[in-house]
Amino acid sequence: MSSKIERGLKFIGREALKHVGRNLPLEGKRWLYRTSLDSDAWQIKRKAVLKAAGYRCRCGNHATEVHHETYERVFNERLSDLTAMCRVCHQAEHSKSDGDRKYEKRT
Ligand SMILES: [Zn+2]
Ligand SMILES: [Zn+2]
Q: Is residue 18 in some structural domain?
């Protein structure tokens, strides 16, 4: 897929979520969420979260991933909605929660 088309899809994804938000079927949410993870804005945000946490997970390991405590404000998260985690804690966090909070492989 060309990057131009990809950028277009990301834009459509963000716009669509603004309008339909929580009424979107789960698969649609996942798709939109995935496209948002590729965005520059997300990369900047996740770095800010990791930096604010001193790249430390709550277990003391080096944090490399960012977990969404809530998807209420997905695309427009507050830093408090996000938690820096190591891979192990992140996977554990998702294995105890429901399908809607599926592990975000790319974070
Ligand atoms: Zn997560
Ligand atoms: Zn950890």
A: yes
Query: Tens of pLDDT along 73-83?
Result: 877 888 889 99
100 pLDDT band, cuts 50/70/90, is very low
Is residue 85 domain-resident? Answer: yes
pTM attached to this predicted model: 0.61
Task: Provide the residues around ligand 1 (an ion) whose CB is within 5 A.
Answer: 67
**Cα(25) to centroid(ligand 1), Å:** 19
Domains contained in the chain, number: 1
Check: CB of residue 104 under 8 Å from CB of residue 77. no
* Interval between CA 68 and ligand 2 midpoint (Å): 15
DSSP state of 16: H
* Domain annotation covers residue 87: yes
